[in-house]
Amino acid sequence: MNHARNCLSAACLFAILATPAGATSGTGNASEPAAPAGPSWQLEWDSRLRHEQVDDDAFARNAHADTLRLRLGLHAEFGHGWSGLAEGAGVASAGDRYNSGANGRVLYPAVTDPRGSEFNQYWLRWQGDRFGATAGRQRLLLDNQRWVGNSGWRQHEQTFDAVELRWQPLAALAVRYDWLDRVHRVAGRDALNPLARERKLNTHLLNLAWTQGAQQWGGYAYLHEDRDVASASSATYGLRWSGKALHDGNGLGWTLEGARQVDYANNPQHFAHSYWLLEPGWTQSGITAKLGWEHLGGNGRHALQTPLATLHAFNGWNDQFNVTPAGGLEDRYVGVNGNFGRGGMAGKLAWTVAYHDYRADRGGRYGSEWNASLAFPLAQGLSGLLKVADYRADGFGRDSA
């Protein structure tokens, strides 16, 4: 089965600074005590226009999704470490020649960018010298987003109703705890499947990070209870080490990670799966090449899952493995990225090429995939992206056409 995703995307990001409510004109007597400053307000917005096309041999028709996202937020600084954000998002689409998950167009391949609007974030935060706390609907990005992220590729962002606590007892050590009450998923609030809209959670995330120079060590315990789908609950414990040893911008980079996932809370299944990532890389003259081996364990009946992750960023951009097959997944890949030059316009053109070979943890081959992208500036605050993913099935799904 042949799957090809072609995307053309343009994004625009601006921030409009508003005059603080308590600001003075500056013409008063300098000897007089300054009046206490009031809150400062900042209006923020960004938009993204995208054409995404999917050619999937499992469907008689190709998908064509033309969507526009607009996000508008008001960020406030209240003083004494307090701040807040209220942000809404809306997505419009031209036509219905794709299955958004909300429009019922099941004869087309899926592009999970439904039209609609929602509150994306609203939170209140206090930040001190060593301790900080945030409560409300918020974006959560942990490490490389393999376990918890915002799925930023989709037009509707994944956000969480959560309480976040941060503590930095040492300059090199950061401790973070998050309690999650609910996840708002990328399918939006109008998805036909209620479980694709949001999930009720009782999830505890603990993450420790130690940074020394160009190296980072991390440890985590993610206790994920899904109150809507008991079989999705799991506990994951892991360690992560990444770093670079560069001289004049050239040299070795690496990421090593290992984790164990077991059943948790009210999950009726009993399992224990391993995860590991080995990713050495080398940078030379501004070009970085990486080799990778990512393992998500499976036993033929159940496999390691990452339901809160930024899934599009892993195991190929075609999104074939957003749900790990029961036989597990071995993703062996090579990737190269860089710019076309060191300066001028060529230095602003960023490219990526990657190849993935997919196999089962227990069983045979799944298939392979090529990815390529080109990012480029268009104007001040405006950028573009071309992105292609081509998956060829060999045992997972149908053969290539």
What's the structural blueprint in terms of helices and strands?
Layout: E1 2-17, E2 40-56, E3 63-79, E4 82-93, E5 116-127, E6 131-138, E7 159-170, E8 173-184, H1 194-197, E9 198-212, E10 215-224, E11 234-247, E12 250-263, E13 272-284, E14 287-296, E15 329-339, E16 350-359, E17 365-379, E18 382-393
Shape: globular
Tell me roughly what share of residues is in helical segments. under 10%
Q: Kindly state the number of beta strands.
A: 18
Low-pLDDT stretches = 14-35
- The CATH homologous superfamily is called Porin
Query: Can you name the CATH architecture?
Result: Beta Barrel
The portion of residues forming beta strands comes to over 45%
The CATH class name reads Mainly Beta
Category by helix and strand content: mainly beta
Biggest sheet descriptor? 18 strands, antiparallel, barrel
Q: How do the helices and strands follow one another from N- to C-terminus?
A: EEEEEEEEHEEEEEEEEEE
The gyration radius over C-alpha positions equals 23 Å
Tally of domains: 1
- Distance from N terminus to C terminus (CA atoms, Å) equals 5 Å
Can you walk me through this structure?
The protein has 401 residues and is mostly beta strands. It has one domain: Porin (Beta Barrel). The protein contains one helix and 18 strands. The longest helix is centred in the middle third of the chain and has 4 residues, at 194-197. The N and C termini lie close together (5 Å).
